[in-house]
What we know:
The protein has 2 domains: 2-111 and 312-322, NADH Oxidase, CATH 3.40.109; 126-305, NADH Oxidase (3-Layer(aba) Sandwich). It is 43% helix and 17% strand. By secondary structure, the protein is an alpha+beta fold. It comes from Nitzschia inconspicua.
Amino acid sequence: MQIFRELIRCATLAPSSHNTQCWKFQLGQNSITIQPDFSRKCPIVDPDDHHLYVSLGCAVENLEIAAKAHGFETQVDATHPEQGIEVKLEVKDATKQTNPRSDPLFDAIGVRQCNRGVYNGEKLSSQDLGKLQEAGRGEGVQTLLLIEEKDKDTIKDFVTKANSAQMVDATFRQELKSWVRFNDKEAKKTGDGLFGKCMGHPSAPRWFGGLIFDYGVNGKSENQKISESIKSSAGLAVIVSVKNDPVHWVEAGRAYERFALTAASLGIHNAHLNQPVEVTTIRPEFTKALNLPEEARPDLVLRFGRGGEAMPKSFRRPLEAVIQQ
Length: 325
Ligand SMILES: Cc1cc2nc3c(=O)[nH]c(=O)nc-3n(C[C@H](O)[C@H](O)[C@H](O)COP(=O)(O)O)c2cc1C
């Protein structure tokens, strides 16, 4: 069905860890089921598949927002995400299928991106902060906003410490490199991965990009960028689940996507600084520093702010590659 394909296209515009697009879609008569694609997992940076399930949550959120804009009533079953997340779709207003309702979050689906550039450092109004915090709330999920300089510094110390650990880990570097697309040709061909241009790097042949990655990207160079990028941000956000299981990780992804779409609709950029939640030896310390209970899971660390330029868009695989036959 053409309309279901359009809903899936909107879902695939969601963010995913390393742009792995770790999802598959199964079409039903009156439903679309989003399934994990474990062949696209990242065992080093994401040993428990947390980021994989968060990414599925982002895609589900886009799908549901797009479905509602297209006149569907929806019902989401994410109780067993390992087996798939079913979105039941019932037509409520068929006229919207050809003429979708305008809605700030739906309109933001094609605009949202992770913007790794430098922002203008200006503070946000309390009204904007309130909208972001509300958007990042879910069932058992909350979003902490940190805007005071001392709090930003505390988080920065964790991010740089965890980044230093990742940058000297050969297996982490190897996995990351395998997802970097150093030039337009590679990025277009695979339709996935971390496109160099989105990270502010010029296009380069793989052999040359690889050399720069191996010898020019290190803890010191990246920590400097992290410090500058945090300084230029209006604030940092930490998305937190009360429980540490796939059901909550999907919910955290949904909350993050609402946060990101709301931000985009307000002209606010966001980007990830997930190092302290990825390095398993640092995460407990980070959880404690945020005054969270031991069983909680800090899911994502983000920065946000206005200013700076839009970055080139990352690529997506064609629908044929993600729709199950
Ligand atoms: C669960 C998750 C984890 C991510 N982790 C990082 C990260 O550690 N560093 C980063 O720069 N981007 C991170 N990203 C952003 C992705 O790289 C980005 O979504 C992907 O490249 C697609 O680009 P787009 O969001 O601009 O469409 C993450 C995204 C998700 C959903």
